[in-house]
Amino acid sequence: MASREVGVALLGVGTVGGAVARTIAERGDVIEARTGVRLVVRRAMARSRERVIQVGLPPEIATTELDDVLGDDRAEIVVEAMGGEEPAASYLLRSLQAGKHVVTANKEALAKHFAELAAAAHAAGRALLFEASVGGGIPLMASLRQILAVNRVSRIRGIVNGTTNYILTQMAEQGTAYAEALQEAQRLGYAEPDPTADVEGYDAAYKLAILASLAAGRHIRPERVDRTGITGVTPEQVGEARSRGGAIKLIASAELDGEEWRLRVAPEFVPGDDLLAHVRLNFNAVEITGDRVGPVVLYGQGAGPQPTASAIVSDIVDAVRFGVALAPHVAPE
Ligand code: HSE
Q1: Rounded to the nearest 5°, which phi and psi values hold at 251?
Q2: Distance (Å, whole) CA 117 – CA 99
Q3: Does one domain contain both 315 and 285?
Q4: Which of 88, 292, 312, 328 is 20 to 30 A distant from 16 in Cα terms?
Q5: Residue in 100, 107, 112, 207 annotated catalytic
Q6: Partners of residue 331 on adjacent β-strands
Q7: Rounded to the nearest whole angstrom, what is the distance from the C-alpha of residue 211 to the centroid of ligand 1?
């Protein structure tokens, strides 16, 4: 198979961006053999040149300016791994407007600006892919896209935050204190830079809003999620749930009630005969119910640099191969 070289620009080389750079370096040959795409990182936007060197990239590709990225014709794909709403959302929009395919793991920027970004991708005729934004390495978006091609999806329910699931698991199984379990989740690269987003349920609410927007075909804003985090969960509640054969889990659910989507993120008691009670550590699981296919459950590592980078690099390859055909259909509210 003849190979095609494709230039990638990274916006952000933190935990996730660094893992993407390493995955491209370590798996470049495998990717090329399987897909015919030779990935080359052409630009890396980062606060420091040292960080770019640290993740094994050549120092001359480092920049602090988005314009350097957008003006580089050899960089066809922009991978945003900065996180946070701004400036990331504006950078995503400008990248699409500049004619780049865009891959992002940024659930907050997507959840808040989904319709605008989807419209920009269609207008530019470019891909907008975000597999890693929900469920880490689980091929959730690919599966949802497949299901939604035929089905009416009326219910989505699952565990979509690895950090809180890790904390609740360690509290239940090891008797670990909340603060210590959170520190460990941070050390393992699961937590957000400000873990409030995880433990207060914002991260799960962004992810649920993204899933529900795709199912609805229109933008459902994260403010519509009735949200409670895990900070009020006590060791006693966790222990009691375990003694009853179940577990306390941070459950995200979206359900179509007539014409209205009802969205909720909250800690719930999950009985032992429910699959979700057995989702441990940084794993996530999401059940999607379609009117033709019935319930489909997807399970895998929902947080962590390697699974996240796996999803991002797969998205890069898909963007090259399928382009705007993979832009999401999300109308304004
Ligand atoms: N902080 C997120 C989590 C990372 O713990 O699930 C993956 O989105």
Answers
A1: -100, 130
A2: 13
A3: no
A4: 328
A5: 207
A6: 218
A7: 15
At 282, give phi and psi (nearest 5°): -85, 10
166 lines ligand 1 (CB under 6 A): no
Distance CA 56, CA 299 (A): 32
Q: How far apart are CA 249 and CA 251, in angstroms?
A: 6
Query: Which pLDDT value is given to residue 55?
Result: 95
**CATH number, domain containing residue 75:** 3.40.50.720
User: 240 and 318 in one domain?
Assistant: no
What percentage of the chain reaches a pLDDT higher than 70? 100
Do 264 and 167 reside in the same domain of the chain?
A: yes
* Residues spanned by the domain of 252: 140-302
Q: Quick one: 113 and 146 in the same domain? A: no
The reply to whether 207 belongs to the active site is yes
Q: Is 162 in the pocket of ligand 1 (CB under 6 A)?
A: yes
- 296 and 153, same structural domain? yes
**pLDDT of 20-65, one tens digit each?**
999 999 999 999 999 999 999 999 999 999 999 999 999 999 999 9
For the CA of 105, the closest atom of ligand 1 is 8
44 close to 9: Cβ distance less than 8 angstroms? yes
Cα–Cα distance, 315 to 293 (Å, whole number): 25
Query: Do 120 and 164 fall within a single domain?
Result: no
- Residue 331 belongs to some domain of the structure: no
E strand residue ranges, the chain:
4-11, 37-45, 62-63, 77-80, 101-104, 128-129, 153-159, 225-227, 247-257, 260-270, 283-290, 294-301
106 CB under 6 A from ligand 1? no
Determine which residue's CA is closest to atom 4 belonging to ligand 1.
303
pLDDT band for position 193 (cuts 50, 70, 90): confident
Both 30 and 109 in one domain: the answer is yes
Distance CA 120, CA 123 (A): 5
- pLDDT higher than threshold 90 for residue 2: no
